[in-house]
Amino acid sequence: MKVGTDGVLLGAWAQLQDEVNTILDVGSGTGLIALILAQRSIAETIDAVELNGEAYEETVENFENSDWGDRLFCYHASLQEFADEIDDKYDFIISNPPFYTSTYKELPKERAMARHTESLTYTELLLGVSKLLSKKGSCAFVIPYEEESSFIEIAKQHKLLPHRITHVKGTENSVIKRSLLQLSFSKKIIEKDELIIEIKRHKYTPKYIELVKDFYLKM
After folding, report:
1. 203 phi and psi, to 5 degrees?
2. Which is it for the CA torsion 119, 163, 46, 108, positive or negative?
3. pLDDT tens string 47-60
């Protein structure tokens, strides 16, 4: 599993309240997002759930080799199994959920599964999140921009409402590629903004640098 811009963006962008003490990363991949949140917060419990065997092993190894290993734990299970078995609620849930576009058609099976909505549909994801999220908690996701409306509609069916939305563009003149969404069970005024990643190839915008600089060795 490669480290992608989506995961770094989501982990850096997600808004964490001071009272967040328990965090869940759904579909951990390499463990990247959980590790970013461990670096950003003082949450005592940061759990991850990962179905793919190779990704699970990679997450565990990265957790153990990090400075925050005592706060990190990964479960090898599907979200559906995990949600049915866990009674605890989480203050914050985060996910870079699987999606599938033509870009991924030639991927090896293991990575293709991790990026394909058939392995975890948005309905299954949001149902599981709604079961596991505390009443005052919030959840954050990164999804393809063209799927934003349908994702928000499914979320509403599970009483989850957006309160932060950031549209991500590669450059000033490119189309919107990703939506960063944060939701909760409370109705709030939606904060909307836009994030542009690059001024030109490999020359990043000040706003992007400020957001992610703490998570790269060179930026």
Report:
1. -115, 105
2. positive
3. 999 999 999 999 99
User: CA-to-CA distance for 150 and 152, rounded, in angstroms?
Assistant: 5
Quick check: 93 and 137 in contact, CB under 8 A?
yes
Q: Alpha-carbon distance 47 to 149, whole Å?
A: 29
Cα–Cα distance measured from residue 33 to residue 41, given in angstroms and rounded to the nearest whole number: 12
d(CA 27, CA 35): 13
The whole-model pTM stands at 0.90
- The token pair that represents 157 in the structure block: 């069916």
Per cent of the chain over pLDDT 90 is 80
Q: What is the chain written as a DSSP string?
A: ----HHHHHHHHH----TT--EEEEES-TTSHHHHHHHHH---SEEEEEE-SHHHHHHHHHHHHTSTTGGGEEEEES-HHHHHHH----EEEEEE------GGGTTS-HHHHHHT-GGGS-HHHHHHHHHHHEEEEEEEEEEEEGGGHHHHHHHHHHTT-EEEEEEEEESSTTSPEEEEEEEEESS--PPEEEEEE-EEETTEE-HHHHHHHGGG-S--
Q: Which residue has the tokens 């990247």?
A: 32
What are the phi and psi torsion angles at 52 (to 5°)?
A: -65, 125
**Tokens in use for 114?**
């991790």
- Is pLDDT of 109 > 90? no
CA distance 70 to 99: 31
